[in-house]
Design goal:
This is site-specific DNA-methyltransferase (adenine-specific). It contains 18 helices and 11 strands. It has 486 residues and is an alpha/beta fold.
Length: 486
């Protein structure tokens, strides 16, 4: 049902002149999905309140309710007087969006679903130009039900698929998407527990936070855990994130809501504007999971917030994460593999700080193509705050095939890494390097597998020339023999 509805919506959107690409597709499908999900959530809350003999005050009321404007029914069918055409787009643009955006000012606090609704509709703009196409999309989405965990799970899986396609549509989208198998492996190694806080300071579409929520609420066999007594903790005091870009922030909020986190603790701000020397214990976290953007050029005033000043965005984020982690906290951070060996002052200083401030216990070397369209190789740094590094376990991921759009990374590719990491065993793809064995001047952390089979030695120029002359002589003899037969 969900797949068919999404396909029909996509077909409708191809005919909408205001929607140009995959980014627009996800953005515009999202706000409609979001409102239908909220409507079903409100009905569920109201029914529960009635059963418990309590009053319930809806968040969205009057003509702004889904069943008043998007899907008004009469005798079990769509009301013939339902808005369509220009009436519908005018209502959405001039009435609905401004009304919902005002929730940002009227909400009691930023940690409420009302505030998140206000932020979503402050950031987004309706791009439907045809009220007839919008009416078709509304009818498709109204046919979807979000009443059970299974239905919500199916919806969130489809939504993730669309986010992935958005990520592959261009660099702006690609910054938001990290392959979910890699995220799941990072979460398994850090092994968060209920009661710990989990943070991503560059959360994009909130993939790390959504997968961490799934990890904490799902058994290994895929069934749902009974977390009843911990539900309030998981909803309100576990997941935290920040995101600079407007569309990524909105997609992140909606992704978390669709995964079951009703009022995400996401903040729309540039994480790097915070002076890392001002971070207090109350602002630190137990787990950090992140894939910060790299290659950016941060302004001088932003660089002033860090002891190691550099324009490389990823290096600033890594400094932020080191200081944002509580003592004993665990982190897994994706970064370009050039961080391991660059000889500039910032790279060397940052490697030294990481080795001294935390135990960098694992480096996962990812193959080319792990991040589709990125064009760079990456590694994942796993570290624990509190004690300096003693030794580092390396694992060189080799799925045995070229990765690409039609052949992406999968969970099986990472199964051996997750298993071996528990004991940090040596093998053909894994080895340990002691801190004392590192070059003290450069702290070079380059991936150099001592267990890899030695490549065949290259032949000397003399051998190559001798071989060419022998083949020339053989060819000349064959031609001479042929001449003799003519």
């Amino acid at each position: 049902m969900y797949e068919n509805a999404f396909n029909k919506i996509e077909k409708d959107l191809r005919a909408e002149e205001g929607i140009a690409n995959e980014l627009d597709y996800v953005e515009q499908t999202s706000w409609v999905l979001f409102l239908k999900y909220l409507h079903d959530l409100e009905i569920e809350r109201q029914d529960r309140a009635e059963l418990e003999g309590k009053d319930y005050a809806p968040i969205i009321t009057g003509k702004y309710r889904w069943d008043k404007w998007a899907a008004p029914l009469k005798n079990g069918a769509l009301d013939p007087n339902a808005m369509i055409g220009d009436d519908l787009t005018t209502f959405v643009d001039q009435d609905l969006f401004p009304h919902l955006a005002a929730f940002r000012q009227s909400a009691e606090s930023p940690q409420t679903i009302q505030y998140k609704i206000g932020e979503v509709f402050t950031e987004l703009r309706n791009k439907f130009r045809s009220g007839y196409i919008l009416r078709d999309v509304l009818e498709q989405i109204d046919s979807l039900a979000f009443n059970t965990q299974e239905q919500r799970h199916e919806l969130s899986e489809l939504y993730e698929t669309r986010i992935r396609r958005m990520g592959n549509a261009g660099r702006n989208g690609g910054e938001y998407y990290t392959p979910r198998p890699l995220i799941r492996a990072m979460i398994k190694v850090t092994d968060p527990k209920i009661g710990e806080t989990i943070y991503d300071g560059a959360c994009g579409s909130a993939g790390f936070l959504c997968e961490a929520f799934a990890y904490l609420t799902t058994n290994p066999d895929g069934t749902r855990k009974d977390v009843g007594s911990h539900w309030d903790t998981l909803q309100n005091r576990t997941f935290y994130g920040q995101e600079k870009k407007g569309l990524a922030y909105v997609i992140g909020i909606m992704n978390m809501v669709l995964h079951g986190i009703e009022a995400p603790n996401l903040i729309h701000s540039n994480t790097l504007n915070e002076n890392v020397m001002d971070i207090q214990e109350s602002g630190r976290h137990d787990i950090i999971l992140a894939n910060p953007p790299f290659g950016g050029g941060e302004r001088r005033e932003v660089q002033q917030n860090f002891p190691i000043r550099t324009g490389e965005t990823a290096y600033l984020f890594l400094q932020h994460f080191i200081r944002k982690l509580r003592a004993g906290g665990r982190a897994a951070v994706v970064i370009k593999n050039t961080f391991l060996s660059n000889t500039d002052n910032a790279s060397v200083a940052l490697r030294r700080e990481l080795l001294e401030a935390a135990e960098l216990h694992t480096i996962l070397d990812c193959p080319q193509g792990t991040f589709q369209g990125a064009g760079v190789k990456t590694v994942v740094l796993f570290f624990e705050k509190g004690a300096p590094t003693r030794d580092i376990w390396y694992y060189q991921l080799d799925p045995g095939r070229s990765l690409g759009k039609t052949n992406p990374l999968n969970d099986d590719d990472l199964a051996e890494f997750v298993e071996l990491q528990r004991t940090r065993a040596n093998g053909p793809k894994s080895w340990i390097v002691g801190r004392a064995d590192l070059d003290e001047d450069t702290c070079d952390l380059s991936v150099k597998n001592p267990n890899a089979p030695e490549a065949e030695a290259l032949r000397s120029p003399e051998e190559i020339i001798a071989d060419m002359l022998a083949r020339d002589a053989e060819t000349a003899q064959i031609l001479e023999d042929i001449r003799g037969m003519l």
